[in-house]
Amino acid sequence: MRLSRYFLPILREVPKEAEIVSHRLMLRAGMIRQESAGIYAWLPLGKRVLDKICNVVREEQNRSGAIEILMPTIQSADLWRESGRYDDYGKEMLRIKDRHERDMLFGPTNEEMLTEIVRAYVKSYKDLPLNLYHIQWKFRDEVRPRFGVMRSREFLMKDAYSVDLDFESAVVAYNRMFVAYLRTFERLGLKAIPMVADTGPIGGNHSHEFIILASTGESQVFCHSDYLGMDTPGSDVDFQDPAALQTIVNRWTSLYAATEEKHDEAAFEAIPEGQRLSARGIEVGHIFYFGTKYSEPMNATVAGPDGVERPVHMGSYGIGPSRLAAAIIEASHDENGIIWPEAIAPFRVGLLNLKVGDAATDAACEAIYAELASRNIDVLYDDTDERPGSKFATADLIGLPWQIIVGPKGLANGMVELKRRADGTRETLPVAAALARITG
Amino acid sequence: MRLSRYFLPILREVPKEAEIVSHRLMLRAGMIRQESAGIYAWLPLGKRVLDKICNVVREEQNRSGAIEILMPTIQSADLWRESGRYDDYGKEMLRIKDRHERDMLFGPTNEEMLTEIVRAYVKSYKDLPLNLYHIQWKFRDEVRPRFGVMRSREFLMKDAYSVDLDFESAVVAYNRMFVAYLRTFERLGLKAIPMVADTGPIGGNHSHEFIILASTGESQVFCHSDYLGMDTPGSDVDFQDPAALQTIVNRWTSLYAATEEKHDEAAFEAIPEGQRLSARGIEVGHIFYFGTKYSEPMNATVAGPDGVERPVHMGSYGIGPSRLAAAIIEASHDENGIIWPEAIAPFRVGLLNLKVGDAATDAACEAIYAELASRNIDVLYDDTDERPGSKFATADLIGLPWQIIVGPKGLANGMVELKRRADGTRETLPVAAALARITG
Asked: A3-338 has which CATH code?
């Protein structure tokens, strides 16, 4: 993409309304624009990041055997009356009357709708296990939306729903998502720690929040520091092998890890002193087994091998891609701007032409641009007539992992400069060597 | 994808509520499920088709130089009060009050919001031309939603907005979209004919509807039959060359073509008799130049080269991917089911194992499945224990372009059967030859 034809509205001033660093940086980098309180438009750079996050989430959901669907945003209130949640949900639910005065709502989540789909089509244990997910906009009418897309009213959510015949197979489904989440966060460049969460009236220990550590996190968390070095499962993990999944889950739940709400000071003190980690954390995922909570009142039953009808056992599994964009920035930035992990950088490479209009510099940049394009590498080519200092600042602010800096002086010796955003290292080397370094 | 692990809820009976063939087939093929009147969930097969349509639309928007963003579904009423449309829009607009009693709405379109974004960031003629698009769910509260996703209340729309300094450059932007639309519909397997549409108070002739011919179309259309054989622009068309674009637009608007509303019987009669085409049509796209209709009241101005501030000239360009899924079926089906064009088929290949459990047949199918996967070809492997007749019916109903039929009898001679859905031709040939035929 040529920056001269792109839409990248960089803000040079720090926006006053933004309280946390990710919000400030997303506004300054031209990623988002607030349209109403807690409601944002994603500008081109932000949209690219959001898409890349969604693609990682999607690939790992698919790998685990979950199947993608797409449910609508607007739901009928009647569906929520069946589960009893219409009255319970409170003011966070955006309630709507359509032109025929029917009660509708903008879905804050989809347990009811998914249960209705299961009830309509799934009749036999032979149709199970099943895990359906979608990535769709949700609305929760927070009293005080804040922190940009970290706590917005309209937000993007990947929500998956597992459907199984009984508790034992539901646990396998739960473990599949547990492992898929470990892989997802690892690929997003995050070290997420699963922490036991409240299961409410269901009981049991099949509810985990995945928390990343960041100094601006919303809550205090406590865990064994070995979590930071723990291996995540590889892409060869067999999601059809319940024993293999259980082994991974056991390892990842073997050490102490808890949020404030579930914190047990005595258990924490039992960790050897040098390995106690107490830090701020941001919730980036939540998985939850809820049994027959919806299938019973909504009568979503299947016939078992014995022919007897029974309500299905379900769980739900959420990740918020819009919130993740902010959470990743909280975990990865410096005073100059964002530092994107390569997997979700809006462009992998920034190509900085320091003297637009100089024939040799232009020609060198065009050649590099064409070469990267031919290798399907996303590159943002700064072909504007801004000063070099401004180009450096923009490239650092928007956090592109690699910067190729091309100017007439270096080119006279056949050299360009290659900068890594992550550690700021710069080296001078021939064009071919710079490209080889990037394409690795 | 193995059908045994997929979620494909085929209906054997013809749904009573569906009046048109695309609606019936989408329900029967397990593509969609109605959740409320005019509101649908996209089941896995439907979601795949919708994604493929969106990808074609996106690729052609990007090729033309348009830039993707993503605006929210919920908008502030105040924005619409600025343009004066809040009161004009009528009951089709889904009006909402949030918990603070603020007037909000579910966007039926985004001219106001886009104009607000332009107003916020675009200050100079040097930032133009600009074309921003998004693919987002819209809501129009139709009195009587019907025909499935062809006329639904919640629907997916690609809407692009061009922003230019003056009328002349706005026409170039219009022509870019005109050409991009020709290419988009061609790639979707549709023959779409641009027809002059009403421009309302703006006047001029820069508004076209793109219409495909289908016997179940909603309106009567009249055109010269040469449109059916007209070449669409190739992928090498230069969107930076205004003259080249104008030549294409001139050719595609040189012959008579009109919808009922704009029909001129005398002009139609002037076409030589054998070349007059009168048929039913479905609108699949609409492009529209509206000048300063929003930029003036909303004060979206830029400084021209002379330093004088002036309101920008804008146009909007819509395609409905959810409606297109139905329109394509209307245009491409037979008595057995859907006939997908290859570009948007949910799977390019159906692999039918006629004797699951037979070691040789299973092994042959697994080998074919692995081979297609290694070539990144989407394949739905019917590994269920259904009867062959049922498998044939399903493959035809869901309309996969290629079917590889594998049974023990053929395999004894090293042969499989290859069927093309489009024309029903079947041939018996060795596995390698069948794969070569599919992969071209």
From this structure: 3.30.930.10
Higher pLDDT, residue B14 or A346: A346
CATH of the structural domain A349-439, one choice from 3.40.50.300, 3.30.565.10, 3.40.50.800, 3.30.1130.10: 3.40.50.800
Q: How many Cβ atoms sit within 10 Å of the Cβ of residue B371?
A: 15
Q: What is the pLDDT of residues A363-374, one digit of tens each?
A: 999 999 999 999
Orientation angle between helical segments B321-331 and B21-28, nearest 10 degrees: 100
Contacts of A65 in chain B (CB under 8 A): 5
From A16's Cα to the closest Cα of chain B, the distance in A is 16
Q: What is the mean pLDDT of chain A?
A: 95
Task: Tell me the shortest Cα–Cα distance from A420 to chain B, in angstroms.
Answer: 27
Q: How far apart are CA B175 and CA B249, in angstroms?
A: 7
Task: Note whether B140 and B73 are within 8 A (CB).
Answer: no
Contact A36 B76 (CB under 8 A): yes
Q: Whose CA is closest to B46, among B73, B14, B6? A: B6
Write down the domain spans for chain B: 3-338, 349-439
A-chain residue closest to B70, CA distance: A42
pLDDT digits (tens, 9 = 90+) for A116-172: 999 999 999 999 999 999 999 999 999 999 899 999 999 999 999 999 999 999 999
- CB contacts, 8 Å: A5 with chain B: 65
pLDDT in tens, B158-177: 999 999 999 999 999 999 99
Q: What is the ipTM of this complex?
A: 0.96
Size of interface A-B (CB pairs under 8 A): 143
- Chain A nearest-CA distance from B6, in A, is 7
Residue A34, both tokens: 């607030």
